[in-house]
Amino acid sequence: MTRARRRLRYLIAAFGALALTAQLGINSPEAEASTDLRFWHFNMCGNVCWQPDAPHNYLPGTDSRGEVTVRAAQIVESVGNYSPDIVTLNEACYSQYRGIRAALVAQGYHATYASSGTGGQCDDYDASEGNGFGMALFSKQPIAAPRETHNLGTAANPNLLLCADTALGSRPVKACSVHLTAASAEQRAFQATNLAALASGWHATKPVVLMGDFNAEPLDPVMAKFYSHSGGEGIFHEADESDADYSASWPAGAVRGRSGEITFSSEATSPPTLKKIDYIFLSGADFRAVEGDSLYGGERRISDHRVYRGGAAWQ
Known about the structure:
single chain; alpha+beta; Deoxyribonuclease I, Chain A; six-stranded mixed beta sheet; 5 helices; 14 strands; globular
């Protein structure tokens, strides 16, 4: 039996033994997109969010290595239930990525990963391999090689962008896993400017999909670089821009705006921090009928972020 098959069998066994489905919210009433194209994003929080005896610790009394495996199993199940065309992950430990990759490749996905550091955010096994905290991108269609990365920051303050030339059905697209810095607004604005410029250049020849944690809320000035409406100067629709439950900030009479469901929650503050900082941006000239769905896993969730899914149709 190959290593990939052994890993897949282990993950499948973990699903039944731990009854994980509900914790990522994948049984929510909005579980199915009504559009042809599907997108799935999650900031995993590596194994940083794991703490002994915390409510979200699925294996009380164990070390973080076991918890890494559990997170991988949950993600594979959630992706399998939704069947997205493109999947992106932020803050993924390399050991987590290996397990997820083995299972999703067995389901027909193609994968690429870029490490953004070693140790610290992941366990010693990751660090010893020279791989650590990073990001991943999966596609139902082949991913062009070699792996494509861009530094959105500077030499002193790098910020990695992972992209791939792939396709949605038969149409080529440029897809990227984005994670802008939380370190400072100045660095984030610099990175966002570079990202928007790259996206504009790519869009001269193909549709563009940007998915990830931008570490800024929709009405933050830096996000104007991406939205094509509501005061924005960018080229994108955002998956959850038409959710009427979050319309308080929309322009008068508008049917969409810079808003959407909560994608990040933390009880580290009082009151808890609740905000949207994860996005699925789709080039507006190419996509229509966008929709988004943020899934809350309840008290026993596995990250301070929520799974964020989107749908769209071709123009």
